[in-house]
Design goal:
Blueprint (H helix, E strand, L loop, with lengths): L7 E5 L5 E4 L4 H10 L4 H11 L12 H12 L2 H10 L10
Antiparallel strand pairs: 1-2
């Protein structure tokens, strides 16, 4: 979901925190994540425009089955929104 909104995810640190680049306001990004009406269909479509779903046998599957496989194994829209609303978010920046 963050990639769809223009975030360049770099990696995760040993504590599981996401390290990313984003040109805009982080407060605005969180607001967009919470207020956007997400659905599996819109996420799948937006992800296809940025990158294809790559798995060992994905090239042999029809698009509908590939989308279903991706949706079942990679997406938890309701759980993600619940997670975003459940916690107070803090912005942590580091400089080296």
């Amino acid at each position: 979901m963050m990639k769809i909104l223009g975030v360049n995810v770099k990696s995760r640190d040993p504590l599981g925190r996401i390290i990313f680049e984003y040109e805009g306001s982080l407060t605005e990004l969180l607001r967009k994540l919470l207020l956007t009406k997400w659905s599996e269909e819109t996420i799948l479509q937006a992800k296809k425009e940025k990158e294809d779903f790559i798995r060992k046998f994905a090239g042999y599957l029809p698009d509908q089955l590939k989308d279903e496989m991706h949706s079942k194994h990679e997406l938890d829209v309701k759980g993600t929104i619940k997670y975003l609303k459940e916690y107070e978010w803090k912005v942590v920046t580091t400089s080296f």
